[in-house]
Amino acid sequence: MSFAGVSRHVGVLEAAGLIRREVRGREHWLSVRPEGFRYAERWIAQQTTFWSDRADALTERLQRKKGHR
User: Fold this and answer.
1) pTM of this prediction?
2) 66 — pLDDT class (breaks 50, 70, 90)
């Protein structure tokens, strides 16, 4: 992967609040921000629940429709 590619990925992770970057001279030190991951985990759980509920509703609807044939 090119330096530019790595830099873009690091920038996205930093913007998302998942990592923190500290520049020391020419070096860039990266650290994980656990609070960013906790927020991401909550969001993923909400999305999982949302889509799981819709999939369950679709399954029920299709089963009812199949029973009417």
Assistant:
1) 0.58
2) confident
